Amino acid sequence: MKWFVRADIDGFFGLALDNLVQLLVIVGLCRHVLGFSDDLTYRHILPGAAVSLLVGNIFYAYQAKQLAAATGRNDICALPYGINTVSLFAYIFLVMLPAKLLAEAAGATNPETIAWQAGLLACFGSGLIEFGGSFVVEKLRRVTPRAALLSTLSGIALTFISLGFLFRTYAHPVVGLVTLGVILLVYFGKLRFRGNIPGGLVAVVLGVLLSWLMGLAPVGELPDNELGVYLPVPVIGDLLAALTSEHSLSYLSVIIPMGLFNVMGSLQNIESAEAAGDSYPTQSSLAVNGIGTLAASLFGSCFPTTIYIGHPGWKAMGARAGYSILNGTFITLVCLTGGLSYIVWAVPVDAGMAIVLWIGIVIAAQAFQETPKSHAPAVVMGLLPGIAAWGAFMAKSGVRAADYGGAPMPAFSETMLARFQQADIWINGAFALEQGFIFTAMILAALTVAIIERQFVNAALWSGSASLLSACGLIHSYRWTAGDTALSLTPAWEWSAAYALMALVFLAAKWLCVED
Most-buried pick from 196, 228, 286, 304 (CB within 10 A)? Predict the structure, then answer.
């Protein structure tokens, strides 16, 4: 298999756009929520992110070449890789912002530095969990039905990716629908443009032109940060300062679940790649993901990396190993030169969103295509927690749009539950499902497969695992913050008891039920 093929250009545009969005979010939140200086962001955080992204992208491209050589095939697609979106928000709002506020309350002269160091610690802890998990999760993968692993990803793809970008497509239809039409022709219609011009390139260039014509670009004012060379510098001293801080243990309630969720998400993406025809070793794939996160923390980034959702989409595009190398090289140059803000100014997200929307559709479809037909109800069951989590996110975003959670409006609290119930919306159930929904989705789908196959003991074991996770506070346990709900890591006894009783129902089925 060649290092580069023509379709790698298409794959590059999709993956690079995704990574650019994450970096843009990082810059925005660091500046406006945490009050970080541009010097800290551009000289430490972005160069650290560049190191982590380059490490993973180069390895996964090499891994794809090795798999191609071992199997004698030339259609192997590298695992996509980038910054973990969920951890990004969790570490900013649940680790770094509280650390800054605590430092300010204590009268510290450098609250921003303390917040950044807390983020480094969280990233380092997540990397340790990801690296350590790589040696044990293959056993879990072997006992988990494919429907359980793929349906969890499908729920995320259907909601947080597909519906989110579909809204944006119809908000800006001239750009969104025209570029979507190009993507549908090329990837679903299996057509190609004359001259072998990559379809992804056509969609992005057309999207940029239409965005400028429709006034969607440029985005904001011309950036004023200086272009230059910002080489990554080790920040071991700052990491050690966070490790020895008296508040370091208080962040474990965020670090542990985020690390575990990252491991499970990456595991599901490896299964998704295998379902698409590319069987990668679990241990080395997850270990390098952990190494990438550790590298991020050692060079100044507070944000863990992950094996991305979307391998089937990039493979269907025809991307192989080269798109991963192109992405790693491009993102590194953007982060080390300060050029990120200029690219975002000139190329709006709308220009390439059709590619990401298409990838979300392919992932959602894969769960039904690559599992036995009889397991389709289990796939639907696995979709529901992800849809519920997205619904909770939309509901809370709507409430925040009405200024709740910010002065002088009321903070989020249990009083809002009654208002939703008046409309027959039991939003507390959505809030409970939102916490740890990756685990919940996998378990519900797995126990449904077991019931379909009449393996009632297995169904009881899966239900028992949900009871244990609830008792540990890793699923369904939430607490109120001023403008959100967050995992509390306290026992969710009501749900724990319910799952335990559910397990007893499954165990009793052998004696209490007969075949229909």
Answer: 304
